Amino acid sequence: MEQIFSYGTLQSKEIQMQVFNKLLTGTPDQLPGYKLKDLKIEEEFGMADYFVATPSENPSDEVNGILFTISDEDLTKADQFESNAYKRIQITLKSGTTAWIYIES
Known about the structure:
The protein is α+β, with helices and mostly antiparallel strands. The chain is built from two helices and seven strands, in the order βαββββαββ. A hairpin with a 2-residue loop joins β3 (34-43) and β4. The relative contact order is 0.30.
């Protein structure tokens, strides 16, 4: 099993059904030392507005999100869902849990 931290679209029940064909259950957590910034991604129907976690110079900044436990297979599905504007790295959350997160590539 893998831990994945979502601060965006993977928290949506509709997106979870689309990507994983099931609903995920998770627990709130925070990513310390990061902030969100706007990111434009080209999609099938034009440009779409998203946001991405990026390291912050202010150590008191943190990004709120949900920590999900998923299978290796679901992690592969998440990789396929996220656009190439993101890359997956491992981070340590405020709870002390090590998890995967998608940041700007």
